[in-house]
Amino acid sequence: MTEWAVLGTAFHAPSPDRLEVLENALIVIGADGAIARVEGHGQSVENFRQAGRLTELGPRQYLIPGLVDCHIHAPQWPQLGKALDVPLERWLQDYTFKLEARYADEGYARAMYSDLVATLLANGTTTAVYFATLHLPATQILAEICLDQGQRALIGRVAMDDPGQCPDTYRDPSAALAIEETRRFIDFVKALPGNDRDLIEPVITPRFIPACTDELLQGLGDLASETGCAIQTHCSESDWEHGYVMDRCGKTDAAALADFGLMTRRTLLAHGNHVTKADRDLIRDKGAAIAHCPLSNAYFADAVLPVRTCLDHGVHVALGTDIAGGASPSLFDSARMAVTMSRMLETGVDPARPREARGTPGRRIDFVAAFHLATAAGGVALDLPIGLFRPGYRFDALVIDASAAGSNLRLYAEDGPSDIVQKIICNASPANVAKVWVDGKLVRS
Questions:
Q1: Global pTM exceeds 0.85
Q2: Average of per-residue pLDDT across 366-370
Q3: Among the listed residues 308, 303, 341, 338, the one whose alpha carbon sits nearest the alpha carbon of residue 320
């Protein structure tokens, strides 16, 4: 396939404080799925048009980068919107582990995972970072489904072997087996037919410190050093988790993970609500990232991640839905909630307290920062060239159609480019996602 191009107005956010408008831009995509160049309207447009290799955006259609969801529990898809009224430790033991155990049934896994990936693509999620289950065959099925449907995905076979925190019906019988099956999944993905561009990547995935013995954590750290694979785990999500690790390890989650060799440039730490200043220093210095999941934090975290504090501290932060702790598959919803939570953190919520003592000044983020967190920041967190319309970046993109029937997105003549982006962040739904490209390939229209 030769070069082709998209013509129209595109938006991206290279930093939390900068929105760029590419008006009437010609984005040229190479046969390798990467952006070759970005041009203004000129003779190239007519050349691509005559060759039948031009996609032209219609009136009230806009191009944005594909959304990057940095924290999803794929097997929890059937649980979305259920059991959100109990504490995290009960939610896991009474509901979640029982559901995840069902993925020993490969037919069940295929049905649930196929529906999940299709739904996320319909919501504009072009890159997904998945926790799977401890079942190797089901995790391999998830990798095959993502590749077949064209979604960029980082997938981890979950490791969890501590009999004190994991039920007998759903845990690894030994650290050695969990490490060996993690290695086998890495080898499976590297040999996956059709994955020549590494659209699917394996991720080393200790569930979190409370679910893993020291032997398992150290073994996975050694495996990460050997293979160079990305790592994902939970970190200081709730008071319970944070306190448990302090009691067991005598140090914070972040410090313990670093000591086990699990804190690298490609480590993704889900939540991080209770990380300390010293933890932020460590995460920044290691180049790791926090996956901020504002919707699930409202149910399980006992706190709000101070996103602006983390950004000001130089910590990489991106967004996640945390399906099913977060009750929406839409990263647009996560972006909205990230703004809302930051405003509540800044202003406070207790009307019984004086206004000047109610909140934490200077902690808000705005829609531009949220747009950045949902796109370019995901690329930074994963150390992948995605999330921006620049030469060399992979062409993962969405067409947002503001004229789509059945949506809440409304635009008027007085709306300028900044207004349009804000309205997209605040109101876009799957109805507005008219086309989805991943790695230069149209995967949904």
A1: yes
A2: 98
A3: 338
